[in-house]
Structure formats: C-alpha cells, structure tokens
Amino acid sequence: MITGYNTDVRYGDIVLHVQTEDKGHGNPFIESLIYYGGQVVVAKRASYADKLDSADTTGEVTALMEQQHRAMMKAIQAGKFDDKIRLFVPEKDKSLQTGVDTSGGFDLAEDSGRTLDQVILEYLTSEAEQEQLLLSMDEVDLVAGSSALAKLRAISSKSGNPVDGAKIHVKMISTFGGPRSLGTGVTDAQGCLQLPIDIPSVEKGTAALIISATSGIGQAELKHLL
Q: Residue 100 pLDDT more than 80?
C-alpha cells in the first residue's frame, strides 16, 4: 500500500479536505474522498488491476494517485461538485457565497448574472492562485519500535514541479502521551528528503505518525496509523 495525499482546498469561504489513497494490491483501487466538516462529500474510485503485472507497479500507481488527486482539486475549483457540496454546507456558510473570493473558489449560490466570458476569466484567475503543496512518501514499513528511512517528496499541485526548501516535520501522537518529535528536514532541489526516524514502541493504546510539510505554496500532511 502506497502512502497517499492529503490537501486542504479553500473554495470561496469554505475549506474542503481532499484525500487520495491506495487501497492495496489485494483491493487494487485508488480512492479519492472530499470531506467537509468531517463528512464525505464526494467519493471516487479507480481500478488499477491492469497495473499489477507491471514491472514498476509502485511507480505507475503513484503517478495515477497524483494525477487523480490533482484532478479532484481542479474539479472542485471548476464547480463540478457544487450540487453535492451544497447538501453539506450550513445555510450560514451558503449565505457568505455571494461572489468570487480573492483567495480562490466560486460561490455556491445560484447564477449571479455574470457572462460566460467573466466566469471563464474568474476561473482562470482562481486557478492561478490555487497552487497547492502535495506531499508523498515512498512505500516503507513504519512499525512501532523500529527504525525506518522515510523517503519524502514535495511537488506543486499545478505544475508537478518539485518544491525545494519545504520544511518537513515527523511526529508521533498517541492516546497515552503527548506528541513526540521524531525528525525534521528540508527538501532538496528535486523536492526530495530522506529522513531517518526512530519510532518508539507502543506498549498500550494506539498511535500514529503525522508527517507535515510547510512551504511557500502552502502546507500538506500525511497520516500513518502504527
């Protein structure tokens, strides 16, 4: 199973969370979910069963995940999920959607009377402003009580170009203690960082790794249950 993507997308006055993950070779699907307020608004699944016999299954599936994740974010900005989003957005938030927000995204209200040319121009302007940070990690065994080399990569959601200088922080959170920092680093010119981490033992309760990245184009986060 390949570690997936998690990105927050501002759409007008609301924030949607986009998550894309690999369901594993035993269930060869790439699943993308869009959340609002902890509820699933949109779900999309794509099979990659035809890639299982490939010489580079991991590489091909990773590329498909990245493509689907970026496509979901672009579809949000294009307004393709507005009807579904309306079902989950409280009336108080809907009332705020009275025009194009300069931070990106369109209103969820009815037709405002703008011409198609205006809508296209606003969409292109919004797209230019909506570059997001994508964080991924090569497949690796992350097990409590062991050491691992986390191979991380940061790229731009729009261009796919590597993001140099993204600050990455790995920490462990658990039900039996406070957060513990396991390592920090900065991506290189190729957007990559190899970060050795020592994962503490988990003798009781449950724990997870939180891998967060911060850059000039935003933040991204990965979660891994131990």
A: no
